[in-house]
User: Fold this.
Amino acid sequence: MTDPYFSVEYRARVNLIPLEQGETVPDVEQLEADIPGPFRLISEVTRIDTHQARLLRNLDDHASDLVEVINQQSRKIDLVLSHVLAEQDDPDCRSYTLTLGGGGFDFTPRHPMTDGQAVRIKLFLPEYSVAVFAYGEVHNGPDANRCHCRFTCIREQDRDALIRASLQLQAKQLKARAEQRAQQNDKPAS
Assistant:
């Protein structure tokens, strides 16, 4: 099965909590009811920030001071939310992603995981104001140091936020590569 979403290399904190015996992955309606408050809050703030960014792009140069004030206010809110979300991160369940995309992520497991194991996911990307609470299924990779987790139950707005963050990460990585190539090309031949 191929993933319809692209992935980008990125190290993010992720909590993977195996479901208990007899526990099942909820449907989207039940997922919505189960999402902890801080995850709902950051999702709503991200939605507002995205809408606000569109509005700010339409302002002309005369409003640059206003845009700066609004951006600073947004940054303060992001800092507070990052602190609130840190309380949701359980070090005992923490792993780190290797790649990330709208369909799931690759990660290095802390403990052996069963192929096909259902997990509850808490994924944190504070620098992009994204935190996702979802469910997934773990698939073992070719070696013990790499597994893939495919989302099996995720809100569409959270998937969209992950896709936007992935695109921003990819753009940043491509820009860094282009700058590195430019610097190498500017070096005089010896």
